[in-house]
Amino acid sequence: METTSKNNKSVKITYWVTTLIIALFELSGAFFINSEIAKQGTQHLLLPEWFRWEVSIGHIIGGILLIVPVSPRIKEWTYVAFGIDFISAFIAYAAVDGWTSSLLSPVIFMVLLVISYVSYHRLQDVKRFPVIVGPK
């Protein structure tokens, strides 16, 4: 029982640390939607102006959905959306800048997203199928 409890605790910590890093990064975009840096980044990637707003609003909604309790289906789609977003960011940076250090950020966040996703499902499995351990 003690090992299962420790494993469950480490999975919870892993889930919350990775999820909060992603959510806080995405939610911080709310403060910079209309900043000069955001405008320059959009122009640098040759994206239309409206796209910056659409992606920023999506990041805010997704960041909230990652950390609040919602149905598993909505949580799944939130992970899918961020996965598509990080892959698209990687492709956009590679297409515009080539193979530079700018590719590192989407890769790091994709790795964090995968770790968060796997941890989320491990926690869901524990809720659905609790381990019953008898006395020693």
General description of the model:
- With 136 residues, the protein is an all-alpha fold.
- The chain has one domain (2-128).
- It is 78% helix and 0% strand.
- The protein is built from 5 helices and no strands.
- α1 (2-28) runs antiparallel to α3 (49-67).
- It is found in: Membrane.
Helix percentage:
over 70%
The biggest sheet, with number of strands, parallel, antiparallel or mixed sense and barrel status, is: none
Give the total of beta strands: 0
Count of helical regions? 5
SSE string, helix = H, strand = E?
HHHHH
Q: What distance lies between the first and last C-alpha atoms, to the nearest angstrom?
A: 9 Å
Total individual domains? 1
Strand content: under 5%
Keywords summarizing the entry:
136 residues, mainly alpha, 0% strand, elongated, transmembrane, DoxX, transmembrane helix, membrane
Outline the secondary-structure elements.
Layout: H1 2-28, H2 36-44, H3 49-67, H4 72-97, H5 104-128
Helix pairs in contact: 1-3, 1-5, 3-4, 4-5
Keywords: Membrane, Transmembrane, Transmembrane helix
Main location: membrane
Membrane topology: Multi-pass membrane protein
Summarize the structure.
The protein has helices at 2-28, 36-44, 49-67, 72-97, 104-128. It is mainly alpha-helical.
